[in-house]
Amino acid sequence: MKRVSIVIPAYNEAETISTTLRAIRERFISEEVIVVDDGSTDNTRELAKQWADLVIPMPTNQGKGAALQVGWQQATGDIILLLDADLRESAGEAVHLLTPVLENRCDLAVAVLPRPKARAGLGLAKGLAYHGIRYLTGFEPNAPLSGQRAVRRELLHHLRKLDGGFGVEVGMTVDALRAGYRVMEIPVSFSHRETGNDWSGYRHRGKEFLAIGRTLCRKWWEGQIWARNG
């Protein structure tokens, strides 16, 4: 029987972490749950300790990619389930994301979330991610930025180091496809906090856009080096 480890990066998620972890525990009673507290300044860490098997404190906020890297390396499972901290009650739906990996239908399952209730932003970050992945691999993703993923441990070992910050999902998809692993997108009824159309929201999306651009440029350059040496 394959062992599953659930890794959740969290930064100032005191409002959501308890509900998310409770929902996970209700559906994944015996699985390993790891929370990486990415330098939170609220009581995220203390709340997570009530539900998680392991809470890893980061000394400072280092970004999602760094938190996931630390989390999966500490995990003991054959399959690593990567989930966001703000899923609340919908976190239990992760069982549907896990199934195709357990059944050996894919090596990396990516959740496709329902359409948001209201349109936010201009779609630039998602568009850049979509076109970048398509250009570099030929794969046309429906959810290029989805952070909800189930992945075989051997794939993560092959990748060795995840990309940092908001480029982590794009980098993981590109690297997995280039290495010949099977990627599948699965519709899952997750719901999470939506970024608004205020200054904070546009600032967040701007950082995301830049991080995705840096990751894609790096993946393009790595491809050039591989082609020359191959």
TrEMBL record:
<protein>
    <submittedName>
        <fullName>Glycosyltransferase</fullName>
    </submittedName>
</protein>
<keyword id="KW-0808">Transferase</keyword>
<dbReference type="InterPro" id="IPR029044">
    <property type="entry name" value="Nucleotide-diphossugar_trans"/>
</dbReference>
<dbReference type="Pfam" id="PF00535">
    <property type="entry name" value="Glycos_transf_2"/>
</dbReference>
<dbReference type="InterPro" id="IPR001173">
    <property type="entry name" value="Glyco_trans_2-like"/>
</dbReference>
<dbReference type="GO" id="GO:0016740">
    <property type="term" value="F:transferase activity"/>
</dbReference>
<dbReference type="InterPro" id="IPR050256">
    <property type="entry name" value="Glycosyltransferase_2"/>
</dbReference>
<feature type="domain" description="Glycosyltransferase 2-like">
    <location>
        <begin position="5"/>
        <end position="116"/>
    </location>
</feature>
